[in-house]
Amino acid sequence: MEEIDGRSGFCKSNSIFYSKRKPLPLPQNYSLDVTTFISSGAHQGKLAFIDAATGRHFTFPQLWRAVDVVATSLSDLGVRKGHVVLLLSPNSIYFPVVCLAVMSLGAIITTTNPLNTTREIAKQISDSKPSLAFTIRPLLPKITAASNLPIVLMEEDSNIPITEPKIVTTLGKMMKTEPRASQVRDRVFQDDTATLLYSSGTTGPSKGVVSSHRNLMAMVQIVLGRFNIDKEETFICTVPMFHIYGLVAFATGLLASGSTIVVLSKFDMDDMLSAIQKYRATYLPLVPPILVAMMNGADAIKAKYDLSSLHSVLSGGAPLSKEVIEGFVDKFPNVTILQGYGLTESTGVGASTDTLEESRRYGTAGLLSPATEAKVVNPETGEALPPNRTGELWLRGPTIMKGYFSNEEATTSTLDSEGWLRTGDICYIDGDGYIFIVDRLKELIKYKGYQVPPAELEALLLTHPAISDAAVIPFPDKEVGQYPMAYVVRKSGSYASEKEIMDFVAAQVAPYKRIRRVTFISSIPKNPSGKILRKDLIKLATSKL
């Protein structure tokens, strides 16, 4: 094989970009589940999880005992390898206990968003066919209305009366049982399915992503290598655990490092800042809108809260601009910004910036994760491209999903026979191996045959002094096909007009990229990882047609 270019990681003979990160040690034992793998990690016997609101907590020994007894109870309820278990719950210290117990049996965990409607939950249940559900009392009606599933109520109190006939037991009762030395457990292999997470469906209906124990173990190793944690660290968990970002970081990955994880049941800026101060947190994972809010409110925040323990924020979901990175560093000089890029289909990893210096390649998603390979492919011709050429990002490596659940058509259009995942993201990789995501393939606006990337126009709009947030969507038009339309959130006290904004963009882009319609809106709808919900905006824009 030809020499790999040391700077970009690109190999001319096969047009593959190779990771410049240190190689990944993967467990060689084929008969291994991710729970056993994580629980074998070193820890200092200190706290694993703390509930920020109540102070309830698990030490590491308590956590692994809880996982063991819940797994035993599940086994007694008839849950076996290959069975699907549904988890509908906000973040809590019990969320990872359920996930780890289910996966230790070789059963499959499927999570769902507490904000989903009964109809959406019913659809996921009919698709994934779970044999049991875990939920909390306030969310109970969403499951009982959607199905006849037996339910475990996530109540700590083991003595509460059970009135709903579908409730078979409570988590409190499960955790009161004694662990048994001898219990029948199926052998679990690295290639067995561990999780069934539903992708956000930004480009269509959401699909069940099937990930194996090996996918999760590779992800854990990448997370551990990235943070290189050798002393006590405390992470704040506000990102949703039902989403790949939360599941990767909190329910599994960081646990293996022996770190302490402080759990907030939902995002609230004051609660988050209070928890950083109270628990002397060192790492704060978040999504870009929260980072921007912290930057904008920095003076008031620093006057009220002691954030001196914080040394790193981890941002995912969308790349950060130069203005945001430098603005944040200016306000919080002792905090390093680290960024990450990943998909549900790649178990949440793919690329990252691991130092402030790397994050200062403004707009980058970072360098390829360890053991991960990439191709940049021309979507029209299928040709694999060299550095600095724009095309669709394809990824291959140990974290790439097995496929979409019972959806062969979607699987074959996304995963090719050689294991390459077509991400649907348009990018280029520069001469130093940094990935720059330009846009979503399916979100490109087609104006008279020209392709217009919404992200480029959004980045431009955000440089306007009167605009605090913006989203660009395709608006259907008989003559040109589609034209760019902007939804704009004005800064308070600003009265920028539609014409002023259209002129501002027109002065800086080619004529076919001009914004031809502007609507002012109070906030841009986004999913939990910070991605703009363009589908919702397109529906809003076209509902009046």
From TrEMBL:
AMP-dependent synthetase/ligase domain mapped to chain residues: 43-405
PROSITE patterns, alphabetized: AMP_BINDING (PS00455)
MF terms (GO), sorted A to Z: ATP binding; CoA-ligase activity
Residue ranges of domain AMP-binding enzyme C-terminal in the record: 456-531
Pfam families, sorted: AMP-binding, AMP-binding_C
Entry similarity comment: Belongs to the ATP-dependent AMP-binding enzyme family.
GO cellular component, one term: peroxisome
InterPro entries hit by this protein: AMP-bd_C, AMP-bd_C_sf, AMP-binding_CS, AMP-dep_synth/lig_dom, ANL_N_sf
Highest rank taxon of the organism: Eukaryota
Protein name, as recorded: 4-coumarate--CoA ligase
Keywords, in A-Z order: ATP-binding, Ligase, Membrane, Nucleotide-binding, Transmembrane, Transmembrane helix
Transmembrane segments: 242-264
